[in-house]
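General statements about sequence and structure are easier to judge against a single worked case. In the encoding step, the backbone of a single protein was reduced to a row of integers, each denoting a local shape. The record that follows shows the chain in one-letter code together with its fold in token form.
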Amino acid sequence: MNRLKNDNLWASILLTLLAGLCVAWLGGWLVHDGWWPIRAGILAVSLLLAGGAALLLEHSRQQEDRVAQRHFEALWKLDTQGMYTDLSSAGLPPLSPANPWFDLADRVRDTIMRLYRRIEALENLQASLEVRCRRAAAHAERMTRILDGLADPILAVDDFGDVVLANRSAQELLQIDVQNAETKALAGLVSCRKLVQLLASTRQRKTPGHRTDELEIADAEGRTRWYRATAVHLAAEDEDGRHEGAVAVLRDIGDQKALQKRNAEFVSSVSHEIKTPLAAVKAYVELLADGDAEDQQTREEFLGVINSQADRLQRLIDNMLDLARIEAGVVQVSKRPRSLNELLEEALRIVRPAAETKQIELASELSPLYLGVLADRDMLLQAAINLLSNAVKYTPAGGRVTLRSRLDDDRVRFEVQDTGVGLSEDDCQRVFEKFYRVKKDREMAAGTGLGLPLAKHIVEDVHGGRLTVESVLGQGSTFIVTLPGAGRMRGEGPGIAH
């Protein structure tokens, strides 16, 4: 529209010039030829009018261009808020509808507005995405910390068999560094073939479910550890298609394996210990049944052997029941303040005949002080008898077994020291295990291997004390019992019983 107005103005100038030429030509036709100055004057006036109109037009155009330039410059500097306000209040120089730049400025402003709106939408979307990304990153970091804090190793692979997740426990156990590894392939990272096969077979399954297997893995220190691995098939779909993988969780079952081994050894030891006296009983019963004992003395000898083996079975069963009751916490305990020295003197009287039979000196070095303990009399007496009997069994004839007691700060302590065969360092670590007997000393004395474990349970589990051993191979052993003290401490002189 403005362009048309501008074109019409130029047309008017041209028409004015043509009209002046026409008037000059007609004036020359109406007058005589001597009137040519008049024609020239008319032509000059027409040219002046046309030139003036042209100058006026150019001035007007330049003025409009300057206004438009200021308008566009101000338009470029407007911010988003200014675009939504009234242009005059935003400091934008107005353009009149007659300005040839009016339509263009209007279109430019509309275009800028659309761009501003798109930019605003994109900025809002960017802000939303940044918030979501921060939340996702925080969530991923939190999940990583949680997984790294788990003691159970966790390992995951994608549909290509590459490791995509390994928490700290898994990396330490398998001795891998997923982030800095040259290859992400599970087969190239993990040396445990059973784990690789478990994840591969689970990943290739088309149906959901899980598989389990027991793995034997050597840790960084070379120790063999047992794990139960549970692998689960994973499947997910996204815009790139369907993805399948697998994740495995490894649970340490070393304690279960050790318990199974101990139970198996326990059953084997019990069977062995029961089998020996039963075999003897059966053999002598068969001799009696076959009439091999023709005289009374032989029959009494056979019956004595049967009776001694039956007593051995009875002791074995009693010890096993006592251990089971103590471990299960169902044993009946009657604790009362008692004199430790009285219990130890009674244990000495019970064991002394066996020591005299082997020609072993049984010495007493009990404290002259009153040593009070809160104890179950029968159980603590049994523990002392077991320790003394064990010392007598493994001390050669002519040796010495010494029983001592003393006060140890707010606790009481007694020791059983012998000059026997002694124990190696490994034997000292295992001597309190059920049915454990030192191989080199098995022929030296018969036993069930339950006396020392029973004494340890009585001292530690029932009375809250501590039983330890110090030994030098070939020189003897010292078993030390420390118990919480009870009652008042008093000096013992003449007339005061221990």
User: Anything to note?
Assistant: The chain is about 55% helix and 20% strand. The two ends are 130 Å apart (CA to CA).
